[in-house]
Predict the 3D structure of the following.
Amino acid sequence: MKLRSIIAIAAIAVCLQGAKIQQGKPEDVGISSERLKRVHEAMRRYIDAGEVAGTVTLVARKGRVVHLEAQGVSDIATKAPMKTDHIFRLASMTKPVTSIAAMMLHEESRFLLHDPVSKFLPEFKDMKVAVANRPHERLAPGYDLIPAVRPISIQHILTHTAGLASGTAGPAIDLSKKLAAERKPGDVLGDHIARLAKLPLNFQPGDAWEYGPGTDVVGRLVEVVSGQTLDRFFRSRILDPLGMKDTHFYLPDGQLPRLAAAYEKKDGKLAKLNTPGPAARDGRFYSGGGGLAGSIEDYYRFTQMLLNGGQLDGTRLVSRKTIELMTANHIGKVPMWRDSLRGYRFGLGFRVMADPGEAAKLVSVGSYGWGGAYGTYFWVDPKEDMIGILMVQLMPYAHLNLRYDFQNAVTQALID
């Protein structure tokens, strides 16, 4: 069934009232109102084609929100219009929050980036690396185990260079998939990390880049160093101070009606996914790699804090120098194997644009950001003093160019 675009453009001044977020007209910050309409048009094409149920988009420049729009529906069955205050499964957009949490402790001199993770999580001591057998060694595929030549550092787990077993690649891929299946309903993050540490590494720490479970290890590090669960640390040190009232690992009952439905494309149509996640009533597993759900306004507050050099509305989480460090290239020339990451390097929790020509994208050198498994996406452009955020709930999403059509539509609207 072809979805009809339902536009729900909220009055930004009303929507953001009380949040101490400034709003403004596009032309006041060097953006063309006429050209910015292309954001609406790009999202509408995907909705009308039945590729996504609905979207919420936000654009801010020079500290002022100049575009906030909801389109489509939050639930196809009920045809409930998407609203700008709907809540979305952020998935891996949790990773930058977890990385900030770790760097807050780094600023307190609780650890150094070159410290071995095993100093705080002893289960990662004396790791082994799985080396795939050469074809002549045996008929069946397999691997040999050799000692790691260096310990996994905290910098490694923040940059996806630790070699941790991944469910997407590597000699021990089957063991990693089995690990995910072994998670029990009552598990906490520490249970999962202890099992992860028993698996062999895919490569020597620091020798390669591979997207994987490193930020869950970062989350566990935060718990051990701070003496708090990740949920409590987030709430007391990040979410409440920034006024992110709609962001949680598990949503309170009163916010559940605002959780947008998640979909997959099945037999040419959108089908609802059964994803309890933030709706679970007894959840205790706080995934630093992908557990949060939140609204676009909340995530804007987080990204504006980043763009402001670590502070928002007089509340400082980290220093300007820490943001500079987090958005630097920490992996040198180590290749990043995903096509979508061409032209990028990796910092501490973010991808960082190094070569727009290689990436073939409208984006400034030094821009940084990340996305989530349900298609959510954000970037921060310090050079243009600009933020873009897209909220959508579709898994998988990679067959669509939704993220980059949004980014192009925003960036091309610059006129100063």
Summary: The radius of gyration is 21 Å. The chain has twelve helices and 18 strands. The chain has a mean pLDDT of 92.
